[in-house]
Amino acid sequence: MAVLLGSQRECQSGVLMPVGPDRTADRTFLRQAARTLDPASPVPIYAQVAAILERYIDEGGLQPGDLFPTEMELMEIFGVSRATVRQAVDRLVQKGRLQRRRGKGTFVQAPKVTGELPFLMSLTDEMALRGIQVRGQVIRAEWVRPSPEVRAELNLEEGEMVLELERVRWAGDLPLFYSISYLPRWTGLEPTDPLDGSLYHLLRVKSGIRPATGTLIIEAGAANAEEARWLQMKQGQPVLRNRRVIFDPAGRAIEYVRGTFPADRYQHRLTIVSKEIWEPDRR
């Protein structure tokens, strides 16, 4: 049985890896794994290197934000060319395991949070099912006169006011979702309500309103100044924007929300069904 020092942990392959601020300095795992490269294998060398690097991320105790070895270090460790190293690292960047930052280096990337479609639930409830705790931050909550767009989406009469709610949802230490929601006055919510949690839960508990159906539009875009500020990213970086209208069982629109996810932290997964199965009588 190995006794681990305070700055070490044992990975699945039995190699001691440091944890804490100096963990990326230990390349023992990589040097040992580099001996397994097989030039005679039908698997290209760059793909073998990429597989080892991915194991290094998974088994080596690396955390999101940790600095990854440089190309020069990897060339020396594996005894391969810069082109081979670059191909291997590119593969992990494409898979979302690593992120290059200009002028700073390559860093371990946090795995993307996946949202399931078409299930209708709050982000808070959806992430809780995956064991991810989401906390909300209310930026602003006030009564406003809606724009023509908001009034049309919520099917409101001229002069009706809406509750405008600007929030950020956090997953751990990273902001995950920036949104502005609009709710009609008849829903019963007030700016003084606890609006940092699940709105759907609050609507059920306070007003007896149950979200039933909704429409959702997802678009790719580039972060504007406000999105970049609240999502802690650079302006112009890729984002996923969605516009959603939620209806109660009677078909009344209870919320219109415009939201933004950083594209490198979130992805949607949609289950699709053959039209012949969905509409068997129309075959």
Sheet/helix structural class: alpha+beta
Shape: elongated
Q: How many helix segments?
A: 9
Number of strands: 12
What percentage of the residues does DSSP assign to strands (E)?
25-35%
What is the first-to-last residue Cα distance? 65 Å
Q: Kindly state the percentage of residues in helix.
A: 25-40%
- What is the name of the CATH superfamily of the largest domain? Chorismate lyase-like
Q: Please tell me the overall pLDDT.
A: 83
CATH architecture of the largest domain: 3-Layer(aba) Sandwich
The CATH topology of the largest domain is given as Chorismate lyase
**Name of the level-1 CATH class of the largest domain:** Alpha Beta
Main sheet properties: 6 strands, antiparallel
Calculate Rg over CA atoms.
Answer: 24 Å
**Which stretches are low in confidence, meaning pLDDT under 50 for 5 or more residues running?**
1-25
Number of domains: 2
Strand order, largest beta sheet: 6-7-8-11-10-9
